[in-house]
Amino acid sequence: MYRFLAIFIDVACAGVIFVPVFLIVRGRDLRRENKLRVCLLLGIGLYFAAVFSVTGIPDICSLVFEPNFHFLPFTDIVNSPLSYVRNCLLNVVLFVPLGMIAPILWEKFRSLRGIALLGFGVSLFIEVSQIFTFRLTDIDDLVMNTAGAALGFLLLDAFGKKGSKMPPEENQNGKGKKEFEIMFGAVFLLMFLVTPFLSGIIWEMIL
Q: Are 137 and 121 spatial neighbours (Cβ–Cβ below 8 Å)?
């Protein structure tokens, strides 16, 4: 229960800043944009915040260099099979939304290879960032996250919804070519620099 509350607080703190800034930056373009697409962009931004909270990325208040690597895949299943399987399933489920939403929003991710590379890249970024925390940088997490993104794409493909009715940003006079990277980086910086202070204030009020 405590963990869910912590994630909710982190996402809420990020959302309080991310949502209005997003709407201000898009400005007049919001009137011309597909409303569902705008909602999905806001949703994936908050999803990034949730993923960062769940995975425990470093923040400016708790930055520490503590590299702890696990490079041998699937070996932990011997020590605690049930715990290992549960952790693997959670890592798969965590990236399923990425595999489902990204292809709808961005044409460059509308292939299994593209979404698998995206899942791998996002997971690798998170795992590398964890060397600045007390968490374990684990090859199993990288594999399962990538599989989760691919699974999300396959589920989306099964319903025939690979963004065919969504206007791809890349084709709009070059606008939005780096939209994913900008949003991902912006939410990461928000979670790294701002959210720890806001969430700290809320925890002081609660406790």
A: no
